[in-house]
Specification:
162 residues; mainly alpha; two-stranded antiparallel sheet; single chain; two-stranded parallel sheet; 57% helix
């Protein structure tokens, strides 16, 4: 087990994080995305939350824009063939070289995705802790208000079960 900062700095070394379809990354997905590393995932089972987790985390990290929706289409595969095709396409599209000053530079869609994730992390829904806390507090207040009105949990469970 590594300290959090070391763990996140290791994630930056990867060009692309290949998520496991059976049971997705959870906290690791968030750490990888915080580092700016793109994550490719396949939510294989609609009925298993553990198979859809990384797609949800990824969507929260992407900007709410046309660029973010395009990245989502590229990074959330619909099936095994799409997953493999995306991994190969993104990997083959990455080119490393040197700029005029002898500095190493990468080019390709993975570099663009990395930049989008890294630059957008301070404004993304996934990492907006203040919003998350407000939403949780609102949920607590709503639960309390329903209890005070005599609406037990059974009514609430019936509502979300629809």
């Amino acid at each position: 087990v590594a300290p959090k900062q070391l763990h996140i700095s290791r994630a930056r070394v990867c060009d692309l994080f290949l998520d496991t379809p059976e049971c997705n990354a959870h906290t690791t997905a968030a750490d990888v995305l915080w580092s700016g590393t793109p994550l490719l995932t396949l939510p294989r089972y609609e009925y298993k939350m553990c198979s859809r987790m990384a797609a949800s985390i990824l969507k929260g990290a992407l900007p709410k824009s046309q660029r973010g929706r395009q990245a989502e289409r590229e990074l959330v595969a619909a099936d095994e063939d799409g997953y493999e095709d995306a991994a190969v396409r993104l990997g083959r599209g990455l080119v490393y070289g040197e700029d005029g000053a002898g500095e190493g530079r990468g080019e390709g869609r993975l570099v663009e995705l990395r930049r989008m994730l890294f630059e957008g992390r301070w404004s993304s829904a996934l990492f907006d802790t203040a919003r998350w806390v407000r939403d949780l507090e609102d949920a607590y207040e709503e639960a309390w208000a329903r209890w005070v009105r005599g609406e037990g949990g059974d009514i609430w469970l019936e509502e979300i079960g629809k």
